[in-house]
Structures are given as C-alpha cells and as structure tokens.
Amino acid sequence: MSRLAKTLRGLSSLVRNPWLLNHVLAADETAWQQRALAHTARGLTSHGLPAVPLTHFLTPDDHTVRPFAFREGGSLPTDLLLLRALARRVPDCRYFEIGTWRGESAANVAEVAAEVYTLNLPGEEMRALGLSERYIELHGFFSRPLPHVHHLHGNSATFDLAGLGQPFDVIFIDGDHRYEAVRTDTRRVFEHLVGPTTVVVWHDASRQPGQPRWEVLAGILNGLPATATGQLVQVENTLCALYSPHPLPTHTFDPLGDPTTWFEVTVRPQQ
Q1: From CA 232, how far away is CA 218, in angstroms rounded?
Q2: Exposed site from 61, 180, 205, 245, fewest CB < 10 Å?
C-alpha cells in the first residue's frame, strides 16, 4: 500500500472513530517526553523540570497584574506576575519578548522596566497564514500606546537579534510553541541576547501548572547551548519554565501534593 493510501485510510478511520485521536496525541506526547528525558543532566523526571515556588521571586510589591483581559490565548495572571517580579528586581531593566499578542505581558512589564521590546510576525506574514484582519489588529492592543514599548515586526527565526545591542535582563519566549520553533528561538536568543545575568522565561512549557508540555521542553533543552550552565526549572503556579544563571532552591514537583501556597485574587474591572 502506498504512503498516500495509508494516510487516507488513517484519516478515514479518524473520521469514523474520532476517539482514536486521543491515542495519536498520547503517542506523540510520549515520544516528546522520551526526547526531553534524554537530557538527564537537567534533573527532569516524569513530572517535568525541578520546581521552584513562584513566591521565591516575589516581594511585597509584587501583588498586582494589570492589564489582564481574561480572554483566550493569553497568559495566566501568575505568569504575568512572575515577569513583573523578575523585571522589578533589576534596576533599569531591559526586557525582550517574542510574541506580542494583545500586549498584556509587555504592558505589565512596562510598569516596572526601563525598556521593553516585543517582537511579532508582521501583518503580511500573518495574512499569509490565513489569519483574520481583526485578529491581526488586536496585536499590541494594550502595549501600543505605551511610549517605552518598542514594537518590532519580523520572524523570530530570521530577525536581526544581534542588531538589538547589549544583552537583555529578562527575556520572555512566547511565540510558536512547536518543537522546531522553540528550539530555534531558544538557540538564537542565547546566541545574541543573553548575558551573564540574563533570566529567560518560556511560556506554555506546561499545559496546566505542573503538567509538562513535553514538545516545548524538548525544544528548550535541544536549543540550549552547552555554555548555558545555569539552572532550568519550572515555576510553580505558572505555565512557565525559567533559566537562571544563579542557583535556585528546587524540589521535585508532586502533582497530588497539598497546595502549600495559595493566592488571594482581587478583580477590579477597568473601562
């Protein structure tokens, strides 16, 4: 049987029995998990990277996230709180991110950082992908009005990152989450933008807090250069993985353990 015939037969089976897709996805996830777990030196287990509590990065000043739209495709409030806290720790912080979307992360960090750079695909490239004009218009909704947020347009796989100058203090990678894109973004960021004290954060390294997204982890691990000898961790209560040039207090995450840390959330609608 030809390859095409096999493919058509498989698609026909999925149409008749949609539940078979669960087996396909599970097998794919297992393959990515095995690929990631090959990096034994990083301390991975079947529960993912070593864990660090979100509270390790917070100070009493790190208690507000704004803006936050509570809409599809964005970060968790705790993800944004992490980024704000990391930027606040560095005087005159220079922040760079891949993936603008509505501009919530850039706008949150802009309150505490000196300079914010956000890189996103140009409109024509998004149109070529079949994305709607309204979707394209929403990019940077919250961050466009802010004077010290620099909106860059280009493909992160080819954009002239070296032209941005000196290393950044905090970098947030939140672009295409497929393996090859994560690997490429990681490799290029460390090649051009990471200095001795840079902290790098990857979004959607977990599907839910504490549930690894193995394709993303495999991309991160295979994109990290051998010279990146810092610590790679998952940040509890977020969807983020984090690279720290300095040692962090870690533990093995237990998804069924007691929630020893919980948060009080106050919501104030804004117009």
Answers
A1: 12
A2: 61
Tokens 């218009």, residue? Answer: 137
What tens digit of pLDDT does each residue of 113-125 get? 999 999 999 999 9
Q: Is the pLDDT of residue 8 over 70?
A: no
What span, in angstroms and rounded, lies between the C-alpha atoms of 249 and 38? 23
Cα 182 off chain centre by: 9
* Residue among 93, 129, 99 at smallest CA distance from 114: 93
Average pLDDT over residues 24-35: 78
Report pTM: 0.90
Within 10 angstroms of residue 269's Cβ, the number of other Cβ atoms is 5
Residue 14 CA to residue 207 CA, distance in Å, equals: 24
Helix ranges, the chain (H): 3-16, 20-37, 77-88, 104-110, 123-128, 133-138, 179-192, 214-223
Q: Which residue has the tokens 């993936």?
A: 99
Amino acid residing at 236: E
Output the CA torsion sign for 224, 37, 173, 123: positive
Q: Is 51 exposed, middle or buried (0-12, 13-18, 19+ CB in 10 A)?
A: buried
Contacts for 207 with CB less than 8 Å, ≥ 6 apart? 213, 239
- Contact between 234 and 50 (Cβ < 8 Å): yes
